[in-house]
Write a structure and sequence with these properties.
single chain, 387 residues, six-stranded antiparallel barrel, 18 strands, elongated
């Protein structure tokens, strides 16, 4: 096993999904996001757990992600939230991937592929842009696009969706913007119904809205980051508790590395590229086998992040290298070579900080932290807190 690894706590994943399910009415379906390799956690294993927990859909971003899941035996319907290239459309249909469409040209690619494959009544979901500015028809265009989908020989409208831009914010203007988006989406759904077309599954609730806006659940919710143990920005655990919503999410990933060397240096000795840190007194430095090529990015060094060694806080010293980094050990930890240093994760596994903590210190979001753990870091899948 490599000296740098990401432990994936499948019990935490299962419990998070269970708690989220309890916040949603039984008749509301759940689409669990496993795109981007399940936010860095390992798509296949996480999809299996989601399937076991009764997920109605799994959200992916690319055709290749869908093919990987199908080859692994995943049978749950797949909803592709991003667009694919025309040459990928046939593979999408062959692997039963439900696409988002919002214009006649893109929908026609799927109709043509279904014709060539003899697939009738292939479900597509109509994306409506209510204020995200990404993909989707405008709300006032929804009925005309739905009619075009209905006119295709091999397609059927299986659902309608939109995506919120600021539902994770508690600022007054953002709350109002989210409500405006929701109202626009409802009007788009109604316009499709008025044309005599069944809109299918209607869904808009991301992680924040899943927990904080039950009126926006509609037919299906799409939880993402909360599945992996992190709250959606300002819709925090503290905020939810104040509003009598009890949900105790646990991080699914713990990122750790072994201490490969321990070095003693005198006052005035510099550490790392650029000599950005010089020991102000005699000190002990540990070398970790993790660097920015693993997802421990260079910018982290200046952020005040502290690595946990035996649950003692150890600051990063000097610049983070591609494959290694250096931390300063506290007194009494000089004999820790080959012990594990925990960078972030589950406190039950020795972490002093979560990916959320790292994100706040480095000016980003927890999604980027977990997705940034590179492919060369092995994922070790654990159950019942066994190592």
């Amino acid at each position: 096993m490599r000296a740098t690894r990401a432990l994936i706590h499948l019990d935490n994943l299962r419990e998070n999904i269970t708690q989220i399910r309890e916040r949603v009415s039984p008749q509301v379906k759940m689409c669990i996001a496993v795109k981007a390799d399940a936010y860095g956690h390992g798509a296949v294993e996480c999809a299996r757990v989601a399937e076991e927990c009764g997920a109605d859909f799994l959200a992916i971003a690319t055709v290749d992600e869908g093919i990987e899941l199908r080859k692994a035996g995943i049978k749950t319907p797949l909803l592709m939230l991003s667009l694919c290239a025309p040459e990928e459309v046939k593979s999408a249909v062959e692997n039963d991937i439900t696409p988002l469409v919002f214009d006649e040209e893109y929908a026609s690619y799927f109709n043509d592929a279904c014709r060539s494959l003899g697939r009738k009544n292939y479900a597509v979901h109509l994306a409506v842009d209510t204020g995200m500015g990404r993909i989707g028809c405008l709300p006032e265009e929804a009925s005309s696009v739905a009619k075009k989908i209905a006119d295709f020989d091999f397609l059927t409208l299986g659902g309608m969706c939109t995506h919120f831009a600021v539902s994770d914010s508690l600022q007054k203007e953002d709350i109002e913007y989210t409500q405006k988006q929701f109202n626009l989406f409802k009007s788009a759904i109604e316009s499709v119904r008025n044309e005599g077309i069944n809109p299918g599954l209607c869904h808009c609730a991301n992680s924040a809205a899943t927990l904080n806006n039950p009126d926006m659940h509609l037919d299906m919710v799409r939880p993402g980051i909360i599945v992996y143990g992190y709250y959606a920005d300002e819709v925090s655990k503290e905020f939810l508790e104040k509003n009598n919503i009890s949900i105790n999410l646990k991080p699914v990933m713990t990122f750790e590395a072994d201490i490969s060397a321990v070095r003693s240096f005198k006052k005035g000795h510099s550490i790392g590229y650029g000599r950005t840190w010089t020991a102000p007194c005699d000190t002990t430095i540990a070398v970790l086998s993790a660097g920015y090529a693993d997802g421990l990015f260079r910018r982290f060094a200046a952020s005040g992040i502290k690595v946990s060694v035996n649950k003692k806080a150890c600051p990063i010293r000097g610049r983070i290298c591609m494959d290694q980094c250096m931390i300063e050990l506290p007194s009494g930890e000089e004999n820790c070579r080959w012990e594990r240093a925990v960078i972030f994760g589950d406190e039950d596994f020795g972490a002093l900080q979560t990916a959320d903590d790292v994100a706040r210190l480095t000016g980003t979001i927890s999604y980027e932290i977990t997705c940034g753990i590179s492919k060369r870091v092995p994922r070790i899948f654990l159950t019942s807190h066994t190592r």
